[in-house]
Amino acid sequence: MKKVSNAYEELKPFLERAQAFSTARILFEWDNETLAPRAAEPNTTKVVGTLSGEYFSVITDEKVKELVRRCRQEKESLGEVESAVVRELAEEIERLECIPPEEYREFAELTAGSTGIWARAKENNDFESFAPVLKKIVEYSRKFASYRAKEGQRLYDVMLSDYEKGFDIETLDRFFGTLKERLVPFLKKLTESGVEIDDSFLTGDYKEEDQEAVGRFFAEYVGFDFDRGVMAVSAHPFTTNLHNKDVRITTSYNNRVDDSLFSVIHESGHGIYEMGIPDELTQTLVGQGASMGMHESQSRFFENIIGRNEAFWIPVYDRLQKQFPGELGDVSAEQFVKAINKVQPSLIRTQADELTYSLHVMIRYEIEKMLIEEGLKVEKLPEIWADKYEEYLGVRPRNVSEGVLQDIHWSQGSFGYFPSYALGSAFGAQLYYFMKGKMDFEGLLKKGDIKTIREFLRENIHRYGKLETSRQILKRVTGEDFDPGYYTDYLTEKYGKLYGIKAE
Ligand code: ZN
User: Fold this and answer.
1) Chain segment 31-80, per-residue pLDDT in tens
2) How confident is the model at residue 315 (pLDDT cuts 50, 70, 90)?
3) Which of 182, 197, 193 has the alpha carbon at shortest distance from 501?
4) What is the pLDDT of residues 330-348, one digit of tens each?
5) 298 Cβ contact list (under 8 Å, min separation 6)
6) Helix (H, G, I), strand (E, B) or coil at 80
7) Mean pLDDT of 278-303
8) How is 298-359 classified by DSSP, letter by letter?
């Protein structure tokens, strides 16, 4: 019989307390973005600050640190889940403790004001007012990374591994290098082909209540369980999870029907991942998706590989027509599928199509690397940004608002975050090719059988929570290490067919 670790038993009540504080904080954050009255924010911010402080003091309690040390000595008596929880806890302690409290407070004050300064700069098209703040944020981020860098590790590597363990500059250079080499010339060929796709009918008098009705239908159709989840409206769509029986998605509505429709399917993908976490993991430190990138792999899998697939629409396109007889009654399923896959190189990442999306991310990766590792001056950002857009996407921003100031991330000090967006799509494509070898993927979609596909993902990915890294998951499931070639194959095959062109 296996000996029970006494230290782990003693650790449990601390972990439960920490979990309760973080759940409460997350619930307030959700509420702030959805239902809370506008005036509530300053008062709620105080409550959230207190909850974060309590979480911090539980996790960094001397007793907790001692118990972590003892758990490591009693390694043999820990099960797989317990070992993973102790590993995550040790990492969390290191993250929270490595920064001197004084510097941490200064940085928190800086970033508390910086998103406001960024938002005004963006509104006024004025990079100069944001540049000095951004410079300070870069300095702090480099300093904080240096506290955690292992010998010989580069600072940007430390930042990257915060979002995606197992990925560093070397791996990402190879990834984005493949994208650059294969997608940039392919896109050029596509835009020069002269093929025009009409998507004008996607914009129109699409009533909000009708959009909500189809949103709920498609969320449920792909497998979002409304007994364990809810859907609300917020300025930008997102997913929040409290545990595997309380998962919340949001969407927003405008006069383009595909915006809310695909954001609902995307967030449903995030939600289905969290609903697939087993009871034994939920409400622990390993009871969430494996990583940012693995999460994006699931949401983008549902949104693009399933949702923008021609076969997906065969059994359900008439459901959409029934809701919008005036707008889509005369539009064939074939026309609709072409329209939702239209490629249009543009300036704004969040509005990008499936093919060009990762090129937006590649630009940010290249610039971050220059900022953190190569001493690029903040003042040079607007020009470098515009040059890269022109080179890779063939479009040049007319001003900084639609250029370097469009994303909130840098104003919050989130360097190393962007690559996960593109990695997720690439993980999804690798999984897709593997699954095609195991099942008649498009045949299942044509029959309206999403369940078989979803069950595969749950069984092979979701139920592992954070027990493995994204790279370990890919290896276990597909038998291969991460290979970006699948992603470029997927994109050039799909869009080559749609636009009638061949990849090099
Ligand atoms: Zn997402």
Assistant:
1) 988 999 988 888 888 888 889 889 999 999 999 999 999 999 988 899 99
2) very high
3) 193
4) 999 999 999 999 999 999 9
5) 269, 270, 272, 273, 289, 424, 428, 457, 461, 462
6) helix
7) 97
8) HHHIIIIIITT-HHHHTTTHHHHHHH-HHHHTT--HHHHHHHHT-----S-GGG--HHHHHH
pLDDT of residue 235: 86
Q: What is the distance in A from the centroid of ligand 1 to the CA of 270?
A: 7
Task: State residue 405 phi and psi, 5-degree precision.
Answer: -95, 5
How close is the Cα of 271 to the center of ligand 1, in Å?
10
What's the token pair of residue 45?
A: 């911010």
How far does the centroid of ligand 1 lie from the alpha carbon of residue 376, in Å?
Answer: 30
DSSP H/E element including 241: strand 239-243
Q: How far apart are CA 305 and CA 96, in angstroms?
A: 38
Tokens 């009255």 appear where? 37
Distance from the alpha carbon of residue 299 to the mean position of ligand 1, in angstroms: 6
What is the Cα 413 distance to its own chain's centre?
17
**Mean pLDDT for the stretch of residues 98-116:** 86
Q: Which residues pair with 203 in a beta bridge?
A: 256
CA dihedral 184, 190, 192, 193 (to 10 degrees): 160
Catalytic (active-site) positions: 267
d(CA 465, CA 281): 7
Q: What's the CA gap between 40 and 503, in Å, rounded?
A: 54
What is the predicted pLDDT for the residue at 503?
65
The strand pair at 239-243 and 229-233 is best described as unpaired
Of 175, 487, 191, 447, nearest to 311 (Cα)?
447
Ligand 1 center to 298 CA (angstroms): 8
Asked whether 478 and 434 are in contact (CB, 8 A), the reply is yes
Q: Which one, of 255, 268, 270, lies nearest residue 224 by Cα?
A: 268
d(CA 47, CA 64): 24
* Strand 229-233 relative to strand 246-251, pairing: parallel
Return the DSSP state at 230.
E
Q: Structure tokens of 196? A: 């025009």
User: For residue 167, what is the DSSP state?
Assistant: -
Cα–Cα distance, 503 to 279 (Å, whole number) = 46
pLDDT at 431 over 60: yes
The amino acid present at 94, given as its one-letter code, is E
Provide the token pair at 145.
């990374």
Ligand 1 centroid–CA 268 distance in Å is 9
Statement: residue 229 has pLDDT above 90: yes
For residue 69, how far is its CA from the centre of ligand 1 (angstroms)? 36
The whole-number pLDDT of residue 2 equals 55
